[in-house]
Amino acid sequence: MVNIKELQASIGETPILKGLNLEIKPGEVHAIMGPNGSGKSTLASVLAGREDYDVTGGSVDFDGHDLMEMDATERARSGLFLAFQYPVEIPGVSNINFMRAAVNGKREHEGLEPIKGKDFLKLVKEKASLVELDGRLRNRSVNEGFSGGEKKRNEIFQMAMLEPRFAVLDETDSGLDIDALRIVANGVNAMRSPDRSFLVITHYQRLLDYIVPDFVHVLVNGKIVLSGDKDLALKLEEKGYDWIKEDVIA
Amino acid sequence: MSHTAEPIVMDLQRKPNVHAATQAKGEALVSALAAQRVASDSVAKHLTALPVPHRRVERWKHTPVSGFWTDYSEPVVQTIEAAGCEACPVPGLHAYRIVFVNGKFDAEASDLPVHGGVRCEPLSMTASGVKAGGNLESSDWFAALNGTFAVEGMKLHVQRGVVLDRPLLVHHHTHGPNSANFLRHEIEVEANAQVQLIQWSTANESASGMVNLLTNMDVASGAIVALDKVQDEAGAVHHLAFEQINQAQSSQVRVHTGTIQGKWVRNDLNFRLDGQGCDAVLNGFFLPKDKEFVDNHTTVDHRAAHCTSSEQYQGILYGSSSGVFNGKVFVRPDAQQTNAYQQNGNILVTDKATINAKPELEIYADDVKCSHGCTIGQFDEEALFYARSRGIGETEAKAMLVHAFIGDVLDGFAVQEVRMEVEHRLATKHGWETWNDTLENA
User: Fold this and answer.
1) Which of A23, A109, B64, B346 is buried most, with the most CB atoms less than 10 Å from its CB?
2) In a domain, B253, yes or no
3) Cα–Cα distances in Å, from B356 out to B59, B324, B401?
4) Size of interface A-B (CB pairs under 8 A)
5) In this model, does residue B97 exceed pLDDT 50?
């Protein structure tokens, strides 16, 4: 589904990703862990199409299409979703109108008519219950005045609304208490399916207790230096990253 | 209610500041117009004593007036029918209507109020005719030009306690090249009366010249007035609008000014809060593009205690357009317990667009609450990326942010049909497809 080959990206003159390889097949959940500054969030941003980064080499194939040739809107409409580490507040734009524009954008891409108001509200109700997002938040401005947990739940709500084929969760666990973490993880797990893949970026093993990955990769200095199964995450939790820097890279 | 002109301590135009070349152009304009039409002699005399605005006068520093120094002719088209446009620019609006085409009253296109206690007629048909007066002419050359040459306009009188059952639409249409349209509206709303007014200005593609509107409004105690002002002029019209609103005790006035289109627009909106417990609301938005110019100068003069004023002007400037916002708030020594709020937000969409924004608060009372804020920025790139990452197209994402930015001002229009038509016209001008796409309409 997603095939990343020798991906290189920089911000300004500074190279961040230095030849990253990763293949994600349908239905798989991959976790990426790594120390601060290793390039985890850059990978998420580059995949979603943030224009602050220059892709200087390599390729990303998404369902047979060259992802790097698409702009952010096209990527989203083609089924890629990024759950932001820091969801953006948009005062004056209601969450619900925002989502309707998003859903209709995707439908337009698929050659469908805009969704009917009644059907849309039904869909909202169904998906919001998945992450226990109450009605009050749906009608407020996008993320404005939401708590950290509410923002992350809203990200997962949006993901559920858009039903992406490939979702990137960028440190979705940061700033969550244990209850919110469970709610978010339940939302993600409810969406796991044989034709939907996830890339879960996290600092901590804790999230992976709830969203159990098929593969765990360690990103250091812009490259994946070690891959394994979920037990690798436990080992990282216990021993930190220094041993990798010493043993694996050296 | 009448006021004799009195020296204003804060008046920035105390010293005549004359620029010889501009003065000569102004005088040439006056002579040319005087040769064509009837002039009010008393104001004409005063006019010659006033300095013609130029760049070194603070209130005109960023407002180019060179476009006015041109030849004007008597317009050919004088009716809506001849102009081939709609008498009512707002579809589905159930309102009384007074229509002026190229400065002439169009009786056929008008639908004057028939309502007990309300007198509404063109100034040219009133017994007293056009009277000079009003404190605007005393200080501003262009307002005095109106005082000299306006022979038409609306006279509206609403008697004590009368509530007009429908909004009253004042439609100004400019048609064809080189017009010089002077209109003066005299509005008097007696105690506890209520009226909703709409001023809508249109022009056709070939229109050029000057539209010079002057509105004097006296609002008596306890009266409630809403004025929705919409400016949507094609062509190359230079549009000047002066409003002097005098409020007596416990009256409420809300003015919303939306500039949709116009090559050159200057709004000069002045509130004078004379009685205690007045409430004034003045909101506006402007979204110029290409080389359009929009200037909003506002003054709120708090002269009595316990009054509130609230002001919000939002500008989004596209292309090589330019804008001016100047918001003066005076709180005089007697105006204790004043609560005055002013907010001006601006977004520059391109690096060629410019805005000159200046809040000016002068506070001479010590027990007041006054706040103001002024921002100049760009579209929030993070918000745009966020929307795009959800599959929302860039144009639509920007339209959403625009809607959010001017939403409060749009919400403030007193007449719902006006608001909807304004949104529709903005969407047409800027090529937004899904404007006002709310679920309430689903």
Assistant:
1) B346
2) yes
3) 12, 5, 22
4) 95
5) yes
> Is B146 within a domain?
yes
Checking if the pLDDT of B224 tops 50, the result is yes
Query: Which residues on adjacent β-strands are paired with residue B298?
Result: B269, B327
Using the Cβ of A79 and the Cβ atoms of chain B, whether some distance falls under 8 Å is answered with no
Mutate to test the interface with B, among A93, A96, A151 (most CBs of B within 10 A): A93
Q: Is residue A174 predicted with pLDDT exceeding 90?
A: no
Q: What is the pLDDT of residues A53-111, one digit of tens each?
A: 999 999 999 999 999 999 999 999 999 999 999 999 999 899 999 999 999 999 999 99
Are A108 and A100 in contact by the 8 Å Cβ rule? The answer is: no
Query: A2-186+203-249 is classed in which CATH architecture?
Result: 3-Layer(aba) Sandwich (3.40)
Provide the number of structural domains found in chain B: 1
**CB contacts, 8 Å: B389 with chain A:** 48-49, 72, 75-76, 81-82, 84
B442 touches chain A (CB under 8 A): yes
What average pLDDT score do residues B65-87 get? 92
CB contact under 8 A, A88 and B383: yes
List the single residue in A with minimal CA-CA distance to B388: A73
Give one word for B153, left, alpha or beta, with left for phi > 0 and alpha for psi -120 to 50.
left
Q: Is position B96 within any domain?
A: yes
Integer Rg of chain B from CA: 21
Instruction: Write down the mean pLDDT value for chain A.
Output: 92
CB of B330 within 8 A of CB of B299? yes
Interval B153-197: pLDDT, tens: 999 999 999 999 999 999 999 999 999 999 999 999 999 999 999
Q: Is residue B69 part of a domain?
A: no
Which range marks the domain in which residue B96 is found? 77-441
- Model ipTM value: 0.95
pTM of the model: 0.87
A151 in contact with B, Cβ within 8 Å:
no
Question: Which of B256, B310, B244 has the alpha carbon at shortest distance from B278?
Answer: B310
Domain boundaries along the sequence of chain A: 2-186+203-249
3-state secondary structure at position A97:
helix
Cβ-contact B72, B209 below 8 angstroms: yes
Phi-psi region of A54 (alpha: psi -120 to 50; beta: other; left: phi over 0): beta
Q: Using DSSP, how many helices (H) and how many strands (E) does chain A show?
A: 10, 12
Residues 386-425 of B with CB under 8 A from A: 386-394, 396, 400-401, 403-405, 407-408
